Each structure stands twice: as structure tokens, then as C-alpha cells.
Amino acid sequence: MKIVSLIPSATEIIVSLGLLNNLAGVSHECDYPKKVKALPKLTKSNIKTKQTSLNIDKDIKKIIKLGLSVYEVKVDLLKRVNPDIIITQSQCSVCAVSFDDVKKSLNNWLGKKPKLIDLKPNNFRDIIKDIKHIGLQLNVKNNSNLLIKNINKEITSIQKKLIGIKKKKILCIEWLDPLMVAGNWIPNLVSFAGGNSIIAKSGSHSPFISNGDIVDLKFEKVVFMPCGYDILKTKNEIKKKNYNFMNFFNGKEKIIVDGNKYFNRPGPDILESIKILCEIIHPNIFIPKPTLKRWIKYE
After folding, report:
1. % of the chain surpassing 90 pLDDT
2. Which of these, 144, 147, 281, 298, could form a disulfide with 195 (CB 3.0-4.6 Å)?
3. Alpha carbon 119 to chain centroid, angstroms
């Protein structure tokens, strides 16, 4: 069985289910575990990622206005790989190649077409459903059930430690310019970690806010987790922004996490994302382990 995964989260789910050797190709964004970097890269981006978040946002809007796709499937290479199964997503067209893009790429496919698996996680429950669905479709149902059981067991253990604690109000930023508050599954993760995510709602898309809105918000900590950004990239971007930007967060604890590796990927590492949030929100209960690979305080 030859599998192609066109989203990092699906790649990590596949590997967690013991099917690394079945992976025949991945997206240009798939980077974990390291072994997948050697596989054929079957997608490409139509925007330059080495620019500010504002310019990235402008480029995306221009492409969408023209009726084009932000990402492309390398159709010829995909045909050479000739997979049995392709896993993609329809949750976000600006985050990864979409289900429709993949479907179009198969229009002129000769012979038996690969089976398409579409993922659309909007909240924590959907992520668990996707893991179960992939396990079922790839004939490793027992492995997926075990993975889900372990995730739920760890969360239950965390919840027991948080019994009776006061939940803290947390602002999670998913994009820096324009400002977006992290929605979808992030409010679920914050809740599991003993916090209340403000503004955004579980299962809903990430809303935009203005710098001025921040002044009127009541929260104790702000966590920066821009989509596709690691800690250093986020830190550098914040420094490039308007000098007064961080003044809006005066008196608040400011945290940067690796959004790209953890929070932006609806896969097995949502568990580690919850653990990171536990350390940030309740350091008196969970021993803080800040590193450039997980989270740091912005000072």
C-alpha cells in the first residue's frame, strides 16, 4: 500500500500508526519525522514565505481574488509516484493544498485512480475522529484506537491535577498582521490545560481583531502561535512590527510557542501542545520546560 500525505498532520498520524515505510510522497511542508524529508515533495506554494506576515496575507488575498490556488499539486510527479491512497484536507485552503485541488489533479489520471481521504478537523473531537478514520481506512484500526486511548489517558491525568484550580484567561494569537485569534481546536487545548481562551470559539474559524481591541480585553497571558512559524521566526516578526505593538500587552505575560510544530498541526502532537500550555498557564502545578523548540517567554 503506497500512501501519499499532503498535510503535515496526516503525515505524523500515519507515522504514529506505524506506516512510515508505506509513505511514498509528502507535501513540501511535511518535515517530521526527519525521514520524510527524503520523500518526493508533491506540492508547492505560490507565495513567498520568507516575508512578513502582512505581505504573506496580501499575497494570499491577491491569489484568491484571481480565483487561483495558494498551493499546487505537482501532477506529473504524483503520477510517477502512483499512490494507492492520497490524504489531504478541506479545512483551510490557505494552510495546505485543498481536497478540490487534489481532485482536479486526478482528472486526467490514467488507470485506477488513488483513493482520496479528506480531513476537515474543526475542533479537538474532529482530530480524534480523523485519527480513527485514517486508522480504519489504512487497516490499522487497533493502532489508531491505542493512540487515541493514550491521548485521552494523558488528558485525563492532566485534568485530575487541575481539579479545583481557577481557570486563567488566555489570548492565543494565530497570525500577527493582521491580528488573528486562534480558533478551531485551540480553545479546546487551552481548556484542557486549565485556561479559558478568549474571543475565539471552539469549532469556529479564527477571528480578526485590531490592535485597539486588545486594550479592552481582559486576559492574563498572551500566547503567540502564528501558523507555520517557529519560535525564532515569530520573535523576529514581532521585533519588526510597529514599535508600539507590544505596548498593547503591557502588564500581561507574553509567551511564544512553536506553532508550526505543535499547535497548527491537528495530529498526535496536540497532546504535547496541551502539555506546553499546562506549563505556561499553571507553572506552579506543571514544571516549566521552556526551550527554543517548545516555548519561551518574550522579554
Report:
1. 80
2. 281
3. 13
Superfamily of domain 3-145: Nitrogenase molybdenum iron protein domain (3.40.50.1980)
How is domain 165-289 classified at the CATH fold level? Answer: Rossmann fold (3.40.50)
d(CA 127, CA 151) in angstroms, rounded, equals 11
Burial class of residue 215, CB neighbours in 10 A (0-12, 13-18, 19+): exposed
DSSP letters, the chain, are: --EEE-SHHHHHHHHHTT-GGGEEEE-TT--SSGGGGGS-B-EEESS-SSS-HHHHHHHHHHHHHTT--SEEE-HHHHHHH--SEEEEESS-TTTS-BHHHHHHHTTT--SSPPEEEEE---SHHHHHHHHHHHHHHTT-HHHHHHHHHHHHHHHHHHHHHTTTPPPEEEEEEEEETTEEE--BTHHHHHHHTTEEE-S--BTSPPPB--HHHHHH---SEEEE--TT--HHHHHHHHHHS-TTGGGGGTTSEEEEE-IIIIIT--STTHHHHHHHHHHHH-TTTS----BTTTEEE--
Distance CA 200, CA 218 (A): 14
Burial of 52 (0-12, 13-18, 19+ CB in 10 A): middle
CA-closest candidate to residue 174, choices 190, 159, 160, 162: 190
Checking if the pLDDT of 243 tops 70, the result is: no
CATH 3.40.50.1980 boundaries in the chain: 3-145, 165-289
17-43 per-position pLDDT tens digit = 999 999 999 999 999 999 999 999 999
Peptide bond into 40 cis (omega under 30): no
